[in-house]
Design goal:
By secondary structure, the protein is mainly alpha-helical. The N and C termini lie far apart (about 75 Å). Helices cover about 45% and strands about 10% of the residues. The longest helix is centred in the C-terminal third of the chain and has 24 residues. The protein binds one RNA strand through α4, β7, α6, β12 and α11.
RNA sequence: GGCCCCGUCGUCUAGCGGUCAGGAUCCAUGGUUUUCAUCCAUGUUACAGGAGUUCAAUUCUCCUCGGGGUCACCA
């Protein structure tokens, strides 16, 4: 069984990059009928992690991603870590180091002055004398100091590190006894049964250290997949400074989960030439072996296109449901079907759709100056009045075709081009030059409102 | 700086020794439309550079260059 996890450190909200690795992990678990777990990495107790976890859960909920079981908090697991620290100590695989912070930084300075790699020198590795007074020891693990560590990575291939280049006896427990990251990830992943780790490739260089922990503890190594970073337009790691990185901001902007997820799944992953993926297809087709090796730049052009695509292809009832978020409760009285039919291929986001709906439903209170200038010629008032008269005289006006017939009649009777009625009528009905088909607009507005808008315009623009 | 990763159109990507280097997006043009949007069609734009290996390299190897990540008693 494939068990994956998402293990954010609590930064307050779910980040767009975090969401992508979460999505990859989720999809891979689902594809294999496995489990997708959630763990909060809050060994730093200063932060309010439960609030952050709540924000993450909210975002997952919006997106329809579900994690299995309870959320694990590392801050609740001190005894577990303590137990393993003790085990390593007892087995002689870790030891207490009494080096003070001052001594440590002194060592670093010397090493830097000599242009050497800064590393712990192992001075307490085999210490059995009397510890110095007044120093609370940290606990360091005995790391191999020579040889090779190979990270077998499903994305990058086998990456080999030389122990002498990167390792030293790193700290696994601070002076206050609290465990450090490289220890707890290994322990938690092992204990949670996580056997496929999908995470950002900024963790690749940490992986050898975690392998040291896995091996010291006798745990089986998971399969690693290190997915490339998402960069900003400057080519740097995407950060909070880069604008909309909070996933929930996309909800605010009017994007739907299906659009956002589809956008994200194609960032760094591909399946031939396919661009559109439903949630079902993602679960069916996703495979981490197809993840790209290189970083990608965050650019939301395609998100807009996808979002427009999904709105265009959504059912009217689904759209109406989405619109309730914008205080729009459409009833059949608003000719909901016609309204959404003509508007849904004009909006990139639900938010835009809401604006378009409101614009049509609201009686214009002003007329765009340029549009008036362009659309209103000498005979425009006469044409509008003639059209008005036709409407008033008609009993059965329901469908767009009914109104269209009247427009054609006026065009024919007055021997004018279609533009002669279309342009001024558009300004009268909508206050501007652009918009959906007028016959549909009038069918939505109904006879009474149509007449009102025409007479308003005639009065205002005569 | 050490170590590690990466390098195909502006962007997301396909490619896994022989392709007119494909798709999508963006942009531009044309068509459809009374307008705008949609839609359709067309077009511009890419293998970072240099050595090898090979009959043949975008593809394999090495070097250079460029970008990124990481080097904590942060995660």
């Amino acid at each position: 069984m494939v068990v994956t996890r998402f293990a954010p450190s609590p930064t307050g909200y779910l980040h767009i990059g975090g969401l992508r690795t979460a999505l990859f992990s989720y999809l891979w678990a689902k594809k294999n009928n496995g489990k997708f777990l959630l763990r909060i990495e809050d060994t730093d107790k200063a932060r309010n992690s439960h609030e952050a976890a709540e924000a993450i859960v909210q975002a997952f909920k919006w997106l329809g991603l579900e994690h299995e079981g309870e959320i694990l908090y590392q801050s609740d697991r001190d005894e577990i870590y303590a137990k393993y620290i003790k085990q390593l100590l007892d087995e002689g695989k870790a030891y207490k180091c009494y080096m003070s912070k001052e001594e440590l930084s002194e060592l670093r300075e010397t090493q830097m002055a000599n242009k050497e790699r800064t590393m712990y020198d192992g001075r307490y590795r085999d210490f059995d004398g009397t510890p110095p007074e007044g120093v609370e020891p940290v606990i360091r693990i005995k790391a191999p100091l020579s040889g090779e560590i190979i990270v077998r990575d499903g994305v990058k291939g086998n990456v080999s590190f030389q122990a002498k280049d990167i390792l030293d006896d790193f700290v696994i427990a601070r002076a206050d006894g609290s465990p450090t990251y490289n220890l707890v990830v290994a322990i938690d992943d092992a204990l949670m049964g996580v056997n496929e780790v999908i995470r950002g490739d900024d963790h690749l260089s940490n992986t050898p250290k975690q392998i040291v922990v896995y091996e010291a503890l006798g745990f089986e190594l998971p399969k690693f997949y290190h997915v490339p970073m998402i960069h900003n337009s400057e080519g740097k790691k995407l950060s909070k400074r880069d604008g909309a990185t909070d996933v929930m901001a996309y909800k605010e902007m009017g994007y739907t989960p299906e659009a956002l997820l589809n956008f994200l799944v194609r960032l760094g992953w591909s399946y031939g030439d396919q661009e559109i993926f439903s949630m079902e297809e993602m679960q069916e087709l996703f495979n981490p072996k197809d993840i790209n090796k290189s970083a990608s730049i965050y650019n939301t052009d395609k998100l807009d296109w996808l979002s427009a695509h999904y709105i265009k292809n959504a059912s009217n009832s689904a759209l109406a449901e989405l619109l309730t978020e914008y205080d729009l409760v459409l009833t059949s009285h608003d000719k909901k079907e016609i309204l959404l039919d003509i508007l849904k291929d004009r909006a990139k986001t639900v938010k835009e759709l809401a604006v378009l709906v409101k614009e049509i439903l609201a009686t214009p209170t002003s007329y765009d100056e340029k549009a008036v200038k362009k659309a209103f010629k000498e005979d425009s008032i006469a044409v509008l009045n003639a059209f008005s008269a036709e409407i008033s005289a008609s009993e059965e006006l329901h469908l767009p075709v009914d109104y269209h017939a009247l427009m054609e009649k006026v065009v024919h009777d007055m021997e004018i081009g279609f533009g002669k009625i279309g342009n001024p009528l558009r300004v009268a009905l909508l206050g501007k030059m652009s918009g959906p088909g007028l016959d549909s607009v009038m069918a939505i507005l109904g006879k009474k409102e149509t007449l009102l808008r025409i007479s308003n315009a005639v009065t205002a623009l005569s």
